[in-house]
What we know:
The chain is mainly α. Helices cover 66% and strands 6% of the residues.
Amino acid sequence: MTTHEQFEQRGADIVALLAASPAGLTLADLAATLHCTEAQVSTSIHWARRALADTDYNIVCDPPGYVGQWPYHLAATKAEAHEWNDNRMRDGKTRLVTIRAVAASIVVAAAPGSTEHREAVLIERSLTRLLEDLADIEV
Length: 139
């Protein structure tokens, strides 16, 4: 079995475990049950979320407060995942702004015409346009 297949299988196992655990499971719970590391569970959750993207299901986290691991839950509807989805969208937009700033600094620092410079120009230009389009939606 390839690494990709292992992550896909583990992702399917995680979905099944979460479906059977309405109270949710932490990374540590999942790792212990699946006999793997928390890092492998985290990567497998990414795979599972991609597999669930075209469904009403989503894997969401609920912060337990300032300490402790976040329990993962299987949300069966978009409404159940609404708060999580809003949080992820805000986080995603923040990351886009940060990546655009990094690309802009590379545009200034890299040798004009170099691959690094051309890539940074394209990323900065694309993200500027994307962020402008997102701002237009929010008005």
